[in-house]
Design brief:
By secondary structure, this protein is α/β, with parallel strands linked by helices. The chain is 41% helix and 16% strand. The chain has 14 helices and twelve strands. Strand 11, helix 11 and strand 12 form a beta-alpha-beta unit. Helix 3 crosses helix 4, helix 4 packs parallel to helix 5 and helix 7 crosses helix 12. The longest helix is centred in the C-terminal third of the chain and has 18 residues.
């Protein structure tokens, strides 16, 4: 998100953009630099390195920035601390999650948001929790959905299956309890030889998932592939994307799959159901229901007419509602600059 926004803020070049990361620079910083954007690593030594706010303040002062946009709770907190010394600088924050835990994140966000002129969220679901859990005034919230660049995806929706069974199913996301990946493993176990599953991502549940897939005797059809820098690589050969989360702020991977012509099965929760229209652009099932998940996956993979309808509907809908051109028009209005 930050990478794409920074790159598009460079158009026109009259807008000066830099990116600062709290930790050391990593692969993402290399990708941003490859687009001609300067990246400064603030080199925080840990979550309690409060001196990083001083380093951010010096960066702002040295470069005479007039606007700072921070993403997620840790960056929002550090930006709020720097705000105390930055007279005349606009501070905007971004909240991207509806995940209730850990609760202390929301306590910190409640304090940090007081320094923000506006709080950017990707969906009405996030707007709701930002108001309820972080005390953000609704008048401060600006809803800007995430977007894709249609030119980076197929020019026409690929409606035919790419392989004979087993069909390739993918999950892309953090291996976190909120994603309810064990439900997906149970669903795969019910589908026999119909599918194979590739899980892209990293997180605290990796060991648990490895244990579960061995217990379910599906370790020959489920593979944990680790993190991936570009979801389009994982989607290139995919025939179905599944997102069984119990909470999502938006689900960027959903619109990436929809744009790529990969049908989606996901859970019917706020955030997701703002992106996916059940039966029109994807299939939604209740949270925590592996049986319903398995049934939906089987139907999408075996009912050619349903698959074709969902793929075409999603491919068209994402280009009507979730493009970077639309998002940048809203950022233009919020920032008060001409980005045309």
């Amino acid at each position: 998100m930050a990478r794409e926004l920074a790159a598009r803020l460079l158009r026109p070049p009259a807008v000066s953009v830099q990116v600062a990361c709290l930790d050391r620079a990593g692969p993402m910083a290399d990708q941003i630099r490859a687009r001609g954007i300067q990246v400064t690593a603030l080199n925080a030594t840990g979550p309690f390195d409060f001196l990083v706010a001083n380093r951010l303040f010096r960066l702002i002062r040295q470069n005479e920035f007039d606007t700072v946009i921070s993403f997620l709770v840790h960056a929002n907190a550090i930006a709020a601390a720097a705000w105390l010394r930055c007279s005349g600088v606009r501070f905007l924050q971004s909240i991207q999650t509806t995940q209730p835990r850990p609760k202390w994140h929301w306590w910190v966000q409640r304090l940090a948001q007081r320094t923000a002129e506006s709080v950017i969220v990707p969906s009405e679901a996030v707007a709701d929790v930002a108001t309820r859990w972080a005390g953000v005034a609704r008048s401060k919230i600006c809803v800007i959905p995430n977007g894709i660049d249609p030119s980076e995806y197929p020019a026409a929706p690929p409606v035919e299956l790419k392989h004979e069974p087993p069909h390739r199913v993918v999950f892309i996301g953090r291996l976190d309890p909120i994603k309810r990946i064990p439900d997906l493993l149970q669903a795969v176990a019910q589908l026999g030889n119909l599918v194979k599953l590739d899980i892209f991502g990293e997180g605290p549940q990796r060991s648990l998932l490895l244990q579960q897939l061995r217990k379910l005797n599906i370790d020959d059809v489920v593979h944990l592939r680790g993190p991936i820098s570009d979801p389009r690589q994982a989607l290139r050969d995919a025939e179905l994307l599944v997102l069984p989360s119990e909470a999502e702020g938006f689900g960027l991977v959903l619109i990436e799959a929809m744009a790529a012509g990969v049908p989606v099965v996901a859970t019917d929760v706020p955030g997701i159901n703002e992106v996916v229209k059940n039966g029109v652009t994807g299939t939604l099932v209740p949270v925590g229901s592996p049986d319903r998940l398995a049934s939906a996956m089987q139907k999408v993979l075996t009912d050619a007419n349903l698959r074709r309808r969902l793929v075409v509907g999603a491919w068209d809908d994402v280009r009507q509602r979730f493009t970077w051109d639309m998002a940048m028009a809203k950022y233009r209005d919020l920032l008060g600059i001409d980005l045309t």
